[in-house]
Amino acid sequence: MSWPQSGFAPRLGTPGSLRARLARLAGVAGVLLIVGGAAAVGVAIGAQQHAPQPSLAAAGVTGPAAGTAGAPSLSRSLPLSVEIPAIGVNSRLLDLGVNADGTIQVPSLYTRADEAAWYKYSATPGQIGASVIEGHVDGYHGPAVFFRLGGLRPGDRIDVSLADGITAVFRVTGVRQYLKSKFPSKAIYGTPGYAALHLITCGGAFDYATGHYLSSTVVFASLTAARASG
Fold this sequence. Notes:
Elements: H1 18-26, H2 43-46, E1 79-84, E2 89-96, E3 116-119, E4 129-134, E5 138-139, E6 142-143, E7 157-162, E8 166-179, H3 185-189, E9 195-207, E10 212-228
Parallel strand pairs: 2-3, 4-9
Antiparallel strand pairs: 1-2, 1-7, 3-4, 5-6, 7-8, 8-10, 9-10
């Protein structure tokens, strides 16, 4: 199982540095990778449970939060869990990369729909660059971990616990929805000059003919603080 149109992920064994692979990844114009809804079954829609969709008022900005210029970054440390109080998310983070055929690995819709996953070819949360966390909006048993992601608003807090005992604290700067055909891959997977966090799930209308959502919901956030976990 893989995300739709995920064939442009950095393939295993590809020569060159990680930065080079990510640059090639981000430079594929018009191609989206982790967009959510891999073989999504639309369970929530079928049960008349509609996931919140981003409002125009929540669009905000895709850059860093105001007043955070020059904010310190964190050293590389693997993420363990993500907590988003505003929408009741508290999930262990899976550590996923790519399959042998180069497609993005995703949480199982059968057993892991309630867990989010960090894309291990992105920055770790708090590092300079874009850290990417993916999650399903629904699964075979109903709403999944990021069902309410589209309901976030600028200013909402996202906490990511790291293996070194630090919790990276991010603030949402914008929540937007993109058609998969117009997904801004460079903006999502590029390397901004600050510590960015991008959360991705599926959204918009569900196409029962193809079994996929037609859009992606993306939350943009930036590092604002760090504290000792616990």
